[in-house]
Amino acid sequence: MGDQERLFKWRAGDPGGVSEPLLSNLRLASRMGAALFRVALAQPGTEAEVTIDGRTLRYRAERGEAAGAHNWHTATLLALITGVPEDLAPLVLTGPAFARPDGSAFAPYREALHAYLAGTDPESAARRALEQDEKAKDWGFTMPPAVLLSQLVEGDEESFNLALADALEAHRAHYEVADRASDADAALNLDALALACHARRRGWAVRVVSPYLPQGLLQAAEPF
């Protein structure tokens, strides 16, 4: 999943726009993420069966490090971009702390994202994510876009677009420093893209135009 995610990010920066190789990396990464958490959902010790690209694969079910919060976060974003309900379903059923506690600085954001998708008190979870975001301003690394997520939770389309522009500007500023521009993450902000695609599927107009927001992927996110 990680390899396909990185290929997707590298190809997202190509000037040719949304290509079939890019979409192929995206879809495969999303399927792999969903499969990982289907295996985690199975009774530990049993054999779990998943299908990827027409191939039926079997794995011994376990809830180890692979099903931790980082991979849950990535898999969820990929599923929100593709918009495939079957990929999102096991992620809603599990959550970032399903296999083990999430001790990272991103934990409140991940909890808020899961609460929003599961419909379990997302307002309180979003407030905790915003509080963590405020604390993290001097921590020296970028945080996921808690303000952007909070506007989804509140159902505020206009403020969502403003927050999206701010999140992408913060992303641009961060990756202009030193050698960060050569990092695969520089091409796009996966969180912002995922939430924007989801907003489109809600029927919202995403008015922000940015090289960090591939328009082909947004346009493919048809409203439900």
From TrEMBL:
This is Immunity 49 family protein. It holds the Pfam family Imm49. InterPro entries: Imm49 (IPR029074). The lineage of its organism: Bacteria, Bacillati, Actinomycetota, Actinomycetes, Kitasatosporales.
